[in-house]
Amino acid sequence: MTSGRAVAGFSYACALLTAATLGYCLLRIPIQVTDSFLNILTLDRPFGAVVSEALRERGYLRPGLWAGLKVVFDLSGGSYFEWFRGVHVLQVALVLVLFVRLLQPRTRPAAVSVPLAIAALVGSQTFAWTVLEAFPINTFLTIVLCCAAAASLAFAPHRWWVDALAAALFAAAVLTLESGILVWVIFAAGSLVGLKGVSRTGLAVSTLLLLLYLVVRFAVLQAGLPGWLDREAGFGFQRYDGARLQQMFGAAPFVFYGYNVVSAMLNVLTGEPRDGVWQLTRTAAAGEPDPVLLLQAAASTAATLVVGWYAWTRRREWRARRFDRGDQIVLVFAAVLGANAALCYAYTKDVIMSPAGFFHAAAVGVAGAHLVERSATAARGALVRAVLVGAVLSTLWGARLIGIHVALNQMGLEVRDQWAYVDEFLERRNIRTLTPRQEALKRQLQEDALRREPAPAPLRNEWVRAFTR
Amino acid sequence: MTGVSDGPRKRSAGACVPRAIQWAFVAPVVAASALVVSFVAFDMAGAPPLSYRMPTNMAEAAGMGSGWEVLRRLRDGEDPNAVQPVGPDVISSSIRRVSAVEAAVWGRRVQLLRLLEREGAIQGDETKRYLACLATIARVPAIVEHFAPGGASGCDEDRVLRQLEARAR
Question: Nearest CA to A225 among A135, A346, A369?
Fold first, then answer.
């Protein structure tokens, strides 16, 4: 017999081992130049100035993001790498722990699918850029963490303080990134499928906060929304700049919006398109399908098919609105997928879909456990099919688990090189002069990048090409 | 009425699961994790597998295109124009003794050469003419253009190549 405690212990050990290996790789990546160095320069001002500027920004309302960065910046006392990267590692570990907590494995079939589910989480294309870059905290990962915490609250037994925490979590998330709205979506979807952690009162409070946020954003601060022509975006087989997008969709932007929403959903479900571009299809049409993209697409599609099979086998219970924990996870995934994709209407990028990727992986864990469990009583033919499905899924996601570690290793080298060429980077950004304080900061971060030991070993090209693009 | 059903699926923790399916689900991912853990362990021990060796001097770092390693060594006071031994895998089996600046040319590292120039490692017209000549031999027009916009006039490719190869003897 396997005790529930042993199953839980095994599952958390898997999560912590993955957090440890990812953390090891992360701790060898210095603070990056792009998106981090300039942000750190911005933080070297009083707290009020940093936050008030965030409140005046057009198209965005992210004071929580800047407040969080500023707090860590001040706490660091100049040890920027240790603090910012430490927060990154801590976030990864918390996401993984909350992921296992969401799955709540108590049986052997559930335990059997946990390693697969963890690989489906960290090997996902939506997760990759939550660890490969930082600003210098990766706020996309912060939102994944908020969504994981939201799920944890929604699935918990109800206590009065859960409602209070839910409201605070929603406020923090939505003021960090726009996709923080997904925290409310999780509470609302959870309520619809019978979760009691956040009560109706708690949901009502979060809904009021959502309305307040919308009023403040659009009526009071008039921050509006980011324009769809502000940046380069993918469409079809390539990326286009704003001017070209204006030519293509100026008369009918809704076509572009619809494309982005559908692309974002398909990205999670099938691994294609990537950042709005049908890269695998393009390479396949040219007669040379990119093997790494093919692996990623095969893994995502196979996982989605298993989740779809699960939903099919549970359809009668669902029609009768009899949901168990696994059903609730899969249904919350569906809600988050739709809402997360809708948020991508103006611009889609793999990492923006990371909250949906989190729940997709959880749904894979649920469906995998269901498949394992049914095989216990299945006829020989069904058992063979289940074994094949399990082996294929596990092999594909195992390869992707290796892939994210390879990518992190390479990033450790790439960021060091970014610092070697930081002056060129600043020139390209038309930053010709730095104040003495900024120059000292640049020198400190550059020295840190050049001398931080140990540097990652340069992996042989064949290994890099086998697992990354 | 919405309800959370334990349903028939909630069985004892020790539900009998065929060994074949346990292996199918767990073995590949666990094998992948074991590979990652092994890599980390070897890496921590200073012997990372599946990797190129780390450069042993600035010339090797330049030849391998490791800008940060070149800059680190520059900051530590190494001379980028000092001739140093390089492994046969860095440039070629016949060119085994070069300076970091020369290695950057052979390695076609245009950005690295700009860095070396910015750091004061490449000075004087004669040096630039020599590097343009070297770039002509290595067939890197971007570097030739950078150091000799009008072309590497007076470049005796055979003589330069013989000199470089003679260093190894």
Answer: A346
Burial class (CB in 10 A: 0-12, 13-18, 19+), A206: buried
pLDDT at B2 over 50: no
- The pLDDT, as a whole number, for residue A258 is 97
- A19-36 per-residue burial string, b: 16 or more CB within 10 A, e: under 16: bbbbbbbbbbbbbbbeeb
| Band (A56; pLDDT cuts 50, 70, 90) | very high
Picking from B4, B32, B37, the nearest residue to A323 by CB comes out as B4
Query: pLDDT of B43-80, one tens digit each?
Result: 999 999 999 999 999 999 999 999 999 999 999 999 99
Where in chain B are the domains? 18-51, 58-167
Between CA A263 and CA A396 the distance in angstroms is: 22
Q: How many CB pairs under 8 A join A and B?
A: 190
B70 vs A: CB within 8 A: yes
Alpha-carbon distances of B7 from A102, A220, A323, A326, B105, rounded to whole Å: 19, 50, 9, 11, 70
Residue A154 forms contact with B (CB below 8 Å): no
Residue A15: closest CA among chain B residues belongs to which residue? B33
| Residues sharing a CB contact under 8 Å with residue A79, sequence separation 6 or more, in sequence order | none
Q: Which residues in A218-291 belong to E strands, given as ranges?
A: 233-235, 238-240
Structural element, H or E, at residue B97: strand B97-98
Measured between beta carbons, the chain B residues lying within 8 angstroms of A112 are 17, 21-22, 25-26
- Cβ of A103 under 8 Å from any chain B Cβ? no
**Residue of chain A whose alpha carbon sits nearest to that of B15:** A108
Are the CB atoms for A107 and B15 separated by under 8 Å? yes
- Tell me whether B41 touches chain A (CB under 8 Å): no
Architecture field, domain B58-167: Alpha Horseshoe (1.25)
Give Cα A446 to chain centroid, integer Å: 28
A158 close contact with B: CB closer than 8 A: no
Q: What is the pTM of this model?
A: 0.94
Residue B65: closest CA among chain A residues belongs to which residue? A417
Interchain contact A417–B (C-beta under 8 A): yes
- Report yes or no: A151 and A313 within 8 Å, Cβ to Cβ: no
Compute the C-alpha angle A228/A231/A232, nearest 5°: 105
- pLDDT value at residue A451: 93
Place of tokens 């003419």: B129
CB A348 within 8 A of CB A264: yes
Which residues are CB-neighbours of A275 under 8 A, at least 6 positions away?
A: A234, A239, A348, A349, A350
In the block, residue with structure tokens 């693009």? A469
Q: Which residues of A248-279 are buried (b: 16+ CB within 10 A; e: fewer)?
A: ebeeebeebbebbbebbbbbbbbbbbbbbbbb
- Our CA dihedral for A55, A60, A62, A63, rounded to 10 degrees, sits at 0
ipTM over 0.85: yes
CB contacts, 8 Å: A192 with chain B: 2
Which A-chain residues 318-337 have CB contacts (< 8 A) with chain B? 321-326, 328
Instruction: Compare all CA atoms of chain A with the CA of B16 and give the residue at the minimum distance.
Output: A376
A373 vs B22: CB contact, 8 Å cut-off?
no
C-alpha span between A80 and A51 (Å, rounded): 20
